Amino acid sequence: MEPRAWQLTDDLTEFLDTAGDFLRSRPALHTVTLTVSEALRTRGPYAHGAEPPRFGVLRDGGGPVRATLLHTPPHPIQLTPLDPPEAAALAGRLAEAGHQVPGVWAERETAAAFATAWQQRTGATAEQSEHQRLYRLAGLTPPDRTPPGRARVADAADRELLARWYVEFAADTGGRIRQDPAQWVDSRLAHGGATLWETPDGTPVSLAGNLPESAGQIRVAPVYTPAALRGHGYAGAVTTEVSGRAAATGAEVLLFTDLANPVSNRLYQRLGYRPVADFATWTFAAAVG
Questions:
Q1: Chain segment 139-157, per-residue pLDDT in tens
Q2: Which H helix or E strand runs over 277?
Q3: Is the peptide bond preceding residue 27 cis, with omega within 30 degrees of 0?
Q4: Which of 21, 127, 166, 279 sits 20 to 30 Å CA-CA off 238?
Q5: Do 232 and 205 form a contact (C-beta atoms < 8 A)?
Q6: Distance CA 163, CA 168 (A)
Q7: How many beta carbons lie within 10 A of that of residue 21, not counting itself?
């Protein structure tokens, strides 16, 4: 086998058997690949899209795994950190195989290197569409003031509200709807992964979600307050509740923020979250003509 060769597969079990130890070795940096892989394992291959997923590992000959690829069409491919030559080699391998790549999500430098290589290889245009920061909870610092009301775990009676807020959150952040809203709600209700802050009269005003524990970490996502209800401390209160509950399990607690939103970044740092790494999404469009 050639040094540092990419091995592509459609078999999730094969991928996890080969790359599982590598992914768990740095669970914070690999959090999205870990959680998506777990969703595919527990909920089936179409948990994140209508097409079968594709996986890849980069190895030093027959030795240790150096990097991974995960693709759940029609979403961007997800990559763990690569150096520019490795990113270029992957772009060439995927282009030769006729693999359709709508975009890439990875640590900032890796995403940029792959986007450049994909442009050069295919003639596609590339545009950075998201810039995110991954945070780790160092020690929870609750807000000085908590708004009136309480947090409660959402239940089946909140199904319609959660589906609507999931769609609104995607629109508000400029992201895409990555799952069918009803499926997303069902997956969250199944493990108590949606918590609402409600006012004293029982009106829900803010949401903080969390994914199931994976490789000793729990990721908080999403955090959403409708625009008309912002500025009252609801997001801080409900995020504190979910973060504290996750930390009490002994897990490492993570979350992503959009760097275009300085308000949320300041909030999470006040609550005790500290930066880990920056990530970016690049979106590709085929060349015309």
A1: 999 999 999 999 999 999 9
A2: strand 273-285
A3: no
A4: 279
A5: yes
A6: 9
A7: 11
